[in-house]
Write a structure and sequence with these properties.
Two copies of one chain form a homodimer.
Chain A lengths: L7 H9 L6 H11 L5 E2 L1 H10 L6 H13 L4 E6 L2 E5 L5 E6 L5 E5 L15 E14 L2
Parallel strand pairs in A: 4-6
Antiparallel strand pairs in A: 1-3, 2-3, 4-5
Chain A binds a DNA duplex through helix 2 and helix 4.
Amino acid sequence: MNEQRPYSKVLDRLRGAGLRPTRQRLALAKLLFEGGDRHLTAEMLHDEARAAGVGVSLATVYNTLHQFQDAGLLREIVVDAGRSYFDTNMLTHHHFFCEDTGDLVDIPADQVQINALPEPPAGKTIDRVDVVVHVRARG
Amino acid sequence: MNEQRPYSKVLDRLRGAGLRPTRQRLALAKLLFEGGDRHLTAEMLHDEARAAGVGVSLATVYNTLHQFQDAGLLREIVVDAGRSYFDTNMLTHHHFFCEDTGDLVDIPADQVQINALPEPPAGKTIDRVDVVVHVRARG
DNA sequence: TGTCAAGTTTAGAATAATTACAAATTGTGG
DNA sequence: CCACAATTTGTAATTATTCTAAACTTGACA
């Protein structure tokens, strides 16, 4: 439907976040937000961009991911030591993490019910609750 | 009570895990297991060891932490990108993670109740469920 | 107790992910 | 279209961790 204005949605999205719609940001936003819910590392996104013929440096991919995160368009997930995934699904939800393959799979929020939470330490407020269900190939 | 055999407990612990009780492993085990529940990075443990006058290289600290983990004496916790904590509390429990300070605080298992969990992806079994409650200084 | 093989430790090099930097480029309001 | 600030970039730097091969311990056994 958007054949003639393929960037209009992401463009609005960037504008809404107060980010200048540069060529690089538009291309990365398109890759990130027009493919459903995704879990990507900086390296993976960089490869995708190059494969799509988009000239963008790895440094810019990192910058952009962090800017998108600060703007609330993405969230960072840390499951694997020394590797950050960025999740394009901003709705409350949780994750399966497969220790064999490194795969990350969404769990809709309504499939996990937490019905007791402790008081946070003095002077702190709860920001969010992350549930990671570690799984492995059945042995 | 153990003034005369200060290493006997950790010694048994290493023996039980099938690990040779070397000077380094004994010293690190003492630091790790005789101070209650602890959350330490390799670097932190290395510093403690040096402060205690124990000559041990950082490489050995890493090796030892992983061996202890494989032996079921420790578990690794990943909350902060690019930094691994090791937790000496092997009972089921969860964590507060303070984003401002990087502090990690235990939440006893009975203070979090999860009463719905999804089916794991085909062919996988659930290994464990990690709940991390992200908190920050009240604004 | 001395010897030896296997298990450990170590310093330093290597790797991997990420961040920092300063120069070059680009986007935008006037 | 200009000027200037924001952005991008290649590269170097940083950080956490793993690797490696040589040196050193340990424990078993004669």
